[in-house]
Amino acid sequence: EKKLAPAVEMRGITKLFGDFKANDGIDLVVEKGEIHALLGENGAGKSTLMNVLYGLYKPTFGEVKINGEVVDFQGPKDAIGKGLGMVHQHFMLFQPFTVVENIILGEEPTKGAVLDKKIAREKVVELSNRYGLKIDPDAKIEDISVGMQQRVEILKALYRDAEILIFDEPTAVLTPQEIDELIAIIKALAAEGKSIIIITHKLKEIKALAEKCTIIRRGQRIDTVDVANTTEADLAEMMVGRAIKFN
Ligand code: ADP
Ligand code: MG
């Protein structure tokens, strides 16, 4: 039986800003249905790598394949077209509009696109039920919590049929209870075959959630490990580059 191509295969990704190397020859392979954590200190180059994947940045060097096909994204629109979705660190939502309105905003008025609000609302409700993303579809963004606003971002990606979801430090803005709920949502997404990349520097979350973890330090990939076989102490050590002793 032929093995499926990885959902994501980034090879030798280098990204220069001037002569600063934000990414230096990074490889990242994510299988379909996998939850893959990206671990690294602030400034390590994690968001840059994901911005390359999502078509926000062009890599200076390197190759990106999606489902085995080489891609050359000119912008996020191309990435979305190939099944990518991104839940940003800072949400890009319009406060005075409702959940459903925000989800359909930005929809390209191309042939077959669903612009009818009633039909869109049904699709949003269906998606939120399927993945346990409880939300009031008619609430205004300005009236809902940050955790709910993040769900809107997730639903927005799913509404556009995202199969590969990137989460950039999604738990930084959440309460402990919201974090537990997000972990359950991400697991439900992966169980349905979605591929997940999650940026975090919280080791407990990685242990609770991810199967694989790629550690990035100063723009370079240090290692990619099976999370089940790696302790939090080992992850921390790879992240900072030296042994950490706790009393
Ligand atoms: P992380 O997400 O791991 O915290 P980033 O990928 O955001 O790190 O940033 C990596 C490095 O690249 C940082 O030193 C940051 O200042 C730099 N950098 C990121 N984006 C830009 C940019 N658009 N222009 C110049 N430097 C950038
Ligand atoms: Mg970042």
From TrEMBL:
<protein>
    <submittedName>
        <fullName>ABC transporter ATP-binding protein</fullName>
    </submittedName>
</protein>
<feature type="domain" description="ABC transporter">
    <location>
        <begin position="8"/>
        <end position="243"/>
    </location>
</feature>
